[in-house]
Design a protein that fits this description.
Structural class: alpha+beta
Shape: globular
Helix content: 10-25%
Number of helices: 8
Order of helices and strands: HHEEEEEEEEEEHEEHEEHHHH
Strand content: 15-25%
Largest sheet: 6 strands, antiparallel
Number of strands: 14
Number of domains: 2
Radius of gyration: 24 Å
Length: about 375
């Protein structure tokens, strides 16, 4: 009888443990804090952390942005304009996890536990002419989907603290010797979702193979970024040998068409897409879609008329009759494009748009 009771008690204990662990799915499939106290920590039960330093993405003085082990820097061919802020980007994945290729124009499918890190900073900040880090944005892939974590740096540049409420800060700096000032916007969680969503689900933007198919100067030397991801075990080795890729819009050795299409892809396509924030507008601005100039708005009437002169989204050889040119020149919140991410005009972007408009002599 005692052995029978002991067996039943043991069986009941096993059942209780199994049932309890089964009810806590996230604690089983999501990684726990690593044993190494200096290793990156992305505990999906506890993130987002209150302090950026708690992730241990960086070693040494955090403001120097020296990546920790397996925190990999990357850069797209063209960068999203954010009031001339400079950016450093990194990706990290837990051991044994790998991303998958879904198409050259689609965001890589990162595994549960992965993190994307992007730091925004300025150089030649006035009055001291130094460097100032404004914010670090972190996106983390949980079992339920991507989450946002916005960290604002303190004045001492020693730490960044979680703040999802949104706020502005005035900053002045020298840009090519000229003084510029911005009411820099730290996005709220709602503002993050406006740009980073598809069918109302949060998604990354820049990590498309077409954007990463360029060389990056790593500490170990220059290497194609997709091949670097593969060699590190961050990406399946099944990408095609040829990828229709974007270019650096500042590279004047490339055609104005490739440069402009690359510019709108990184700055505008995430909103002007099916299931995105501006999907109701008659434009599709992804690089894979703008080989057809009608998707750029060439000779297409706008949905709304701000001015009677603005007869098309883009009018060939006539910037004064082009709605896109007007919107990219505007800083009025309900008129400017993009809606978020800038408070001042991107002069180089305007010059590129004007060059493309003048290049187009007709609607073809």
């Amino acid at each position: 009888m005692k052995r029978t009771h002991l067996f039943l008690a043991s069986s009941l204990l096993v059942y209780i443990v199994f049932s309890a662990t089964g009810c806590k799915k996230d604690t089983v499939i999501e990684p726990a804090t690593p044993a190494d106290p200096n290793a990156v920590s992305v505990n999906l039960v506890n993130v987002p952390y209150q302090k950026l330093s708690d992730y241990k993405f960086f070693t040494g003085d955090m403001k120097n942005q020296v990546p920790n082990a397996k925190v990999l820097p990357y850069a797209p061919a063209s960068s999203l304009f954010t009031d001339y802020a400079l950016k450093k980007r990194f990706v990290w994945m837990p051991s044994g996890k790998i991303s998958t290729f879904n198409g050259e124009e689609k965001v890589l499918e990162l595994p549960i536990g992965a993190a994307l890190i992007k730091t925004f900073y300025y150089e030649n900040v006035q009055p001291g002419n130094g460097t100032k880090i404004m914010e670090t944005r972190v996106m983390i892939r949980k079992s339920s989907g991507w989450i946002f974590a916005e960290y604002i740096w303190n004045d001492e540049q020693t730490e960044a603290f979680l703040n999802m409420n949104g706020e502005t800060q005035t900053i002045s700096w020298l840009q090519d010797g000229n003084l510029k000032t911005s009411n820099y916007r730290f996005p709220s969680e709602t503002e993050c979702l406006i740009c980073h969503k598809n069918d109302n689900q949060p998604i990354p933007i820049g990590i498309k193979p077409q954007n990463l198919n360029i060389a990056y100067n790593y500490d170990s030397g220059s290497q194609n970024q997709l091949q670097k991801w593969i060699s590190l075990g961050y990406l399946e080795n099944n990408i095609p040998s040829t990828i229709l890729s974007t270019v650096d819009y500042k590279d004047i050795t490339k055609s104005v068409d490739l440069r402009f299409r690359s510019y709108v892809d990184i700055n505008c396509a995430h909103c002007h897409a099916e299931g995105a924030h501006c999907d109701y507008r008659p434009m599709r601005l992804a690089f894979s879609e703008t080989a057809d100039p009608a998707n750029l708005g060439l000779c297409i009437e706008p949905e709304e008329f701000i001015d009677a002169l603005l007869i098309n989204i883009i009018t060939p050889s006539n910037k004064s009759k082009s709605m896109m040119y007007y919107r990219l020149n505007s800083t009025t919140p309900n008129e400017r494009m993009p809606l978020l991410g800038r408070t001042i005009v991107h002069e180089e972007g305007i010059q590129l748009l004007e060059e493309w408009i003048n290049w187009k002599e007709d609607c073809n």
